[in-house]
Hints:
Elements (H helix, E strand, L loop, with lengths): L4 E5 L2 E2 L6 H16 L7 E4 L1 H9 L8 H16 L2 E2 L5 E2 L1 E7 L9 E5 L3 H11 L2 H18 L5 H14 L10 H19 L7 H14 L4 H9 L8 E7 L10 E6 L11 E6 L3 H6 L5 E2 L12 H4 L1 H18 L3 E8 L2 E9 L4 H13 L5 H6 L7 H4 L2 E2 L9 E2 L1 E4 L2 E7 L2 H9 L4 E5 L7 H6 L2 E4 L7 H9 L3 E3 L4 E4 L4 E4 L2 E4 L3 E5 L4 E4 L4 E2 L5 H13 L3 E6 L2 H9 L5 E5 L2 H4 L4 H9 L3 H26 L3 E5 L13 H11 L3 H11 L11 H6 L1 H22 L4 E6 L5 H22 L5 E7 L2 H5 L1 H5 L4 E4 L1 H9 L7 H9 L16 H15 L4 E4 L7 H9 L4 E4 L4 H18 L1
Parallel strand pairs: 4-5, 17-18, 18-19, 19-20, 27-28, 27-34, 28-29, 29-30, 30-31, 31-32, 32-33, 33-34
Antiparallel strand pairs: 1-2, 1-3, 3-8, 6-7, 6-8, 9-10, 9-12, 10-11, 12-13, 14-26, 15-25, 16-20, 17-24, 21-22, 22-23, 24-25
Helix pairs in contact: 4-5, 5-7, 6-7, 13-19, 19-35, 20-23, 22-23, 23-27, 24-25, 27-28, 34-35
The structure holds phosphoenolpyruvate and magnesium ion.
Amino acid sequence: xxxxxxxFGGGVAEGSAGMEDLLGSKxxxxxxxxTIGLPVxxxxxxxxxxxxxxxSHGSNFPDTLDGAVREGLSQLENARGSRFGDPENxxxxxxxxxxxxxxxxxxxxxxxxxxxxxxxEGLARKSGDRRFAYDCYRRFINMYGEVVLDVDGFLFEExxxxxxxxxxxxxxxxxxxxxxAIMTVRFKEIVESESGKRFPEDPLEQLWGAIGGVxxxxxxxxxxxxRSLHDIADTTGTAVTVQAMVFGNLGHESxxxxxxxxxxxxxxxxxxxxxxxxxxxxxxxxxxxTPLPLVESPMHGAAEALSAHAPGLxxxxxxxxxxxxxxxxxxxxxxxxxxxxxxxxxxxxxAKRTVEAGLKIxxxxxxxxxxxxxAAVMRVNPDDLDSLLYPSVDPSTGAEPVxxxxxxxxxxxxxxxxxxxxxAISRSRDGAHVILVRKETSPxxxxxxxxxxxxxxxxxxxxxxxxxxxxxMGRPCIxxxxxxxxxxxxTLFTVGDITIRDGDEITLDGTGGGIYLGRIPTIEPQLPDDxxxxxxxxxxxxxxxxxxxxxxxxxxxxxxxxxxxxxxxVSTEHTFFAPSRxxxxxxxxxxxxxKERRPSLDxxxxxxxxxFTKLFRELRxxxxxxxxxxxxxxxxxxxxxxxxxxxxxALGLPVEAVRKRxxxxxxxxxxxxxxxxxxxxxxxxxxxxxxxAMFVAASDVLQEFGDTVTLEITVPLVVGKREFDFVRIIVDxxxxxxxxxxxxxxxxxxxxxxxxPRAALRAGEIAKSADFFSFGTDDLTRTVFGMSRDxxxxxxxxxxxxxxxxxxxxxxxxxxxxxxxxxIATERGRTENPELLIGICGEHGGDAxxxxxxxxxxxxxxxxxxxxxxxxxxxxxxxxIMGDENT
Length: 887
Ligand code: PEP
Ligand code: MG
């Protein structure tokens, strides 16, 4: 026969912690507390299986449940020495909800069950307190009416207010026993008129009604919404705990309250919590009375604190808190009640806490010897760290945003408003910090986005072009700010009746989504010391190397300072787009043959050499993977008439001739066009120039410092071995030539981005001549899905809202599809070349779930934006720990 109930109390229990799925967190922890000898009122927990049965059997209970509940009840009666429904010596119970996942306040509970007109008089006699007995009775009818009989709680409130008015009382505490008795009569009338049924007098009928009501509350609207917001499965169900009542409302020596074992907002180890004398649990949460603190606080005098009101009780509570924290190895959130000075614990669970508190608690508990280093690292949720890694608007200014949009890319920035990407470039060149404000962005705006310190769009969602590109660049961004009305022709935008013009200063908070007028002070991210400590512990544990992707010298410095294990991707092209170089690159792009290309290459060589020298100085001693020119050259072509004019002058050609050459170069689908290694093969002289600049720079640094980088040259957008070999021959030749000239031997590797499906499938062959693979999961995702992140916003948000996809595949690697190709390429590559170094350098490298996947398939490293390094390092350590646990 299936076991439907698990009893607990009196130092023993049938259940234990770890049985949350079956008993709910409340039931499992009550059992655990009972077993370790803590004062828990006895009771029994009806399993979550009953909830499942009830909902799949037309709201019926399993046949054998009745006997089990009777048995549980009689054990309870024996434990308490009183009888359920017996007016001479009554036992009252609470019927409480509780699922495996914490859903605070979302489901229902009924207290003081077992009272009727006869029993209430018995309770009055037994307790010697008639007012108390009727207080319990009116609470019971109210809760039962709401939870079980669906009566609108407002009707009870209204009736209670009338009775208070009749008795000249402001608060419940001013009411007499008779007034409460009147209330019970009035409440029952309400139940009868609203539900069409008499209030049940039979305690057993009440009990079954309450069990059903609590089970049904699993599917009440707020619980369903809470589950969908917190990714909790709808199928697990609630358990129901039936427990002997202990009374916090039995006079002033009785109290009820909530205690945390540490302060959940700061993490400090100090008494933290609230209580109310002469009250029941729901009074603390309902907000009708202001709870008092456990210890003296600025709001309340010392005398009101529990430590003064009941010092013995306070000390006992503190020692139980310590015990529970040591037992569970985590901060606990505890419900307690003292009946006539005797303390009982009604619930314990892991406390919810702020991110900062969580870090502090993990570090402190390790230092106190309560948890291991590994456990401390596992306590961090890498996804929660965002708010600590980027600048934020200083909350102490009290500034209010004028408009809000979607927090598309975290961080805060102030700057002057510009509406045009070219403007963004020219003003930033003049030293201004600019914020680019657009209806939406397109690939043509990317250079302007790069020049801006922040981006705002009036349209688009979290997967819009602006959002994706801004996240990739590490620029704060707000999308879909729908109250922002842009009037580009007049270079202004309005929000309501406020007008903001080109050149006006605004501040945006990409973490929270607020747009502010003027310059609001921002605070730079300060990695909390506790996070630094946890990351250093993670470094001791993790097997994956964590490298950084860099574009600029600032990135390189940040990567170095944050402790990257190397650089997984240097994107060289942004240096080509710098305003001072763009004409030279245009000249290169529009040249008709090698001879015409030569002068521009000669001008670019010293610039690239200088860039690389600076970079390699900063990063000497580390492996640095530099990618050869990748983007479609279209991106540098002139757009406006003025631009054509300037280009024509620079090239010494008529405008018409420039237009013709541009038309010849322009592509229809640039991202799938003439880019990556296709450029390296069409224009080997460009490759020669870039590789030469790298080797000369590495040699310069070697001569200067006696140490340099391990150079890794990454060939982008390869689809097969022959393409790769073509480029590798150039690299090896140039390396030999530079060595000949300088006498310096630079250790280097030549490898490829695996970012097209064909490359992943032909990985075995490519690995025969490649030294490393780096998965370019941005392009790989784009090409595996046949979906461009630039256009995906139009449908991806709808897909996510309709659960057609769960996660944005441009943020978290699609393990089933793209991940499968990564796995295949890794296996095939390693089979052919066991020495092959393998990493990932797409944007996914900074996503915790992706990092875990990369660990699980045995990659050597992940590479991510510098400010994601702490996230990736913690995630890599967690992957190691979880992997070890599974073996
Ligand atoms: C990639 O495709 O994942 C990659 C690293 O290159 P990019 O994102 O610069 O195209
Ligand atoms: Mg790519």
